[in-house]
Design brief:
By secondary structure, this protein is α/β, with parallel strands linked by helices. It folds into two domains: about 5-110, Rossmann fold (3-Layer(aba) Sandwich); about 130-160. It is built from seven helices and five strands. It has a five-stranded parallel β-sheet. Helix 6 packs across helix 7 (about 150-160). The radius of gyration is 20 Å and the shape is elongated. It starts with a strand and ends in a 6-residue tail after the last helix. About 20% of the residues are buried.
């Protein structure tokens, strides 16, 4: 049986349970050959998408999941017929159809949203415990300026921890 080449393109920052479930669901169909397109840093910046990880780190993370057969890095933000032909893509899947997908709408299919921890959930957790994560990083030897802290803020955090000196 010939497999259908299915492309899911995105940022894939802080590879999350939501990402994993989407890829797992696609891969559970034995007729699917799952291709993940990862936007590079230039593309994410041009489209005002803030990322924690670099494009290289994001694409490397995906290489280590059994639900992915192939990675295209960098992947264009706006997909063209030419790009799909070059990579022999049969289907493009995304949670929502927008203007970026007009040229390829004949090959577009909507992905069902799957529950699970998302990248935004992870970021919210870190922001909610910001002081604790700063304290942890400082106690592990990071310099306050590596964390984007002012020296006074770092000293206050260190006093709370009972440390006497900061880098």
């Amino acid at each position: 049986m010939e497999q259908k080449r299915v492309l899911v393109a995105g940022v894939f920052d802080l590879f999350s349970l939501c990402h994993m479930r989407v890829l797992e669901k696609l891969k559970s169909d034995p007729s699917n050959y799952v291709i993940v397109g990862v936007y590079d840093d230039e593309t994410t910046q041009e489209n005002k998408i803030l990322t924690v990880m670099t494009g290289y780190e994001r694409s490397e993370n995906l290489k280590h999941t059994r639900f992915v057969d192939e990675i295209i890095y960098p992947c264009p933000f706006v997909l063209s017929q030419e790009f799909l032909q070059k990579h022999n893509i049969d289907v493009v899947m995304s949670e929502n159809f927008d203007d970026r997908h007009r040229e390829i709408q004949a090959k577009f299919q909507t992905l069902d949203h799957l529950d699970g921890t998302s990248t935004n959930d992870i970021i919210a957790r870190v922001l909610n415990e910001y002081d604790e994560y700063c304290e942890r990083s400082l106690s592990r030897g990071y310099a306050y300026n590596e964390l984007g802290l002012k020296e006074l803020d770092a000293k206050c955090l260190f006093l709370r921890l009972g440390h006497k000196k900061i880098r």
